[in-house]
């Protein structure tokens, strides 16, 4: 069960966020704010306490708060984002983490190690970590040794196509794994019940499980139906403005 969720309001500078899909156009700030509100409403329906942080105008991508930390039952790990325009975002999450974790259980990924939370997928006490353009080998080594200090485990997954691990694969509990593209045939995920995301709906591989509800991006009917067929309660949330800058549902929150 998740008790708490941290989100950060989108900044007005959002339209300058990093994107690999400029053809989708720039995000509309007012619509992004509206969509963010509905995202928070959906999370509230899942029974969690919401901690909403103020926008950080100097960081266009800062609403993607997931990338700044990894929160486990035993410790919080402050990330070290691997792209310069986002690197200092992680400094702004520390004060909030101190309200939930004792100081000695707050750990840090240190340079030259880099790691972004979007590259980390939690499956029980095991954490899969994507080696990506943002998360490097040294970051992964540091991350796994921190996990092991707390009796948790981690393993590396090499990424070839996607930005972050969770851009393409997400665990929705009960052994169910949403898999798209490069993850469909990866041997590391053979043991799970794989829900194959069709190429036409690949964006919807990024769903979030929160207390027996799965939040699914609006506009991906095949994915929605597959998840409903597994017996989950499903809530759809429109994330069109965040998609324009490579963001999805998981990126917008830290759930713990
Ligand atoms: C970035 O490139 O960092 C942002 N425009 C998107 C971050 C998405 N975050 C995530 O997948 N966890």
Give an overview of the whole structure.
The chain is of the alpha/beta class and 256 residues long. It has a single domain (4-255), classed as L-arginine/glycine Amidinotransferase, Chain A (5-stranded Propeller). The protein has seven helices and 15 strands. The strands form five sheets. Strands 2-1-15 form a three-stranded mixed beta sheet, covered by helices on one side. A three-stranded mixed beta sheet has the order 3-4-5. A hairpin with a 4-residue loop joins β9 and β10. Bound molecules: citrulline. Citrulline binds next to α5. The site of citrulline has 18 residues, from α5.
What keywords describe this structure?
three-stranded mixed β-sheet; globular; binds citrulline; single chain; alpha/beta; L-arginine/glycine Amidinotransferase, Chain A; 256 residues
Structural topology:
Elements: E1 4-8, H1 29-45, E2 49-53, E3 69-71, E4 76-78, H2 84-87, H3 94-98, E5 106-108, E6 120-123, E7 126-131, H4 137-149, E8 153-158, H5 165-168, E9 169-171, E10 176-179, E11 193-196, E12 208-210, E13 213-217, H6 221-229, E14 233-237, H7 240-243, E15 254-255
Parallel strand pairs: 1-2, 4-5, 7-8, 10-11, 13-14
Antiparallel strand pairs: 1-15, 3-4, 6-7, 9-10, 12-13
Helix content: 10-25%
Number of domains: 1
Largest sheet: 3 strands, mixed
What CATH architecture label applies?
A: 5-stranded Propeller
**Percentage beta strand:** 15-25%
Question: Regions with pLDDT < 50 over 5+ consecutive residues?
Answer: none
Principal-axes shape call: globular
